[in-house]
Amino acid sequence: MKKILLVLALIVTTAATAQVYTGKGDQKFQVGADFQSGSTGVQATYDYGIGENISFGLTAAYALGIDEDVSVNFDERAMLRLRFNANIGNVINVDENLDIYPGLGFSTKNFGGHLGARYFFTDGFGLYTEMAVPFASYKTENLTPAEELYNQFVVSFGMSFNF
Prior knowledge:
- By secondary structure, the chain is mainly beta.
- It has three helices and eight strands; from the N terminus they run αβββαβαββββ.
- Strands 1-2-3-4-5-6-7-8 form an eight-stranded antiparallel beta barrel.
- The radius of gyration is 18 Å and the shape is elongated.
């Protein structure tokens, strides 16, 4: 009986400490796949907490699987974005392991927004999904298919890690 209570106490303690966003000094790294019209790619993000519900970060993405009829250069395949997140998981309080983070970003392609969610299974590992959309493209005339890469609705998902 004592062993069963000990195991239950360990499970509850582990689940209780697997919080997603802890505020100032919190660090998250995410790596995953992204999907958009005409391409699939890889994406990595890093976020650093500067307040109870605020984090800043960086996103790097690269389009790999591009439609054969689209001719692209490296600068059209690659994207860098400075990002701002409002981590509201503790505000909506659905689950202490779930963080929802709307945010804004300034990228090499546009100014846009994103909405993401991450769920941590342990203190160090979780899964994330994110949707991004441009609000204003830096190029105002009609975009070629190559220029549309990361200048359109993009969905990504993958793994999230705590530091």
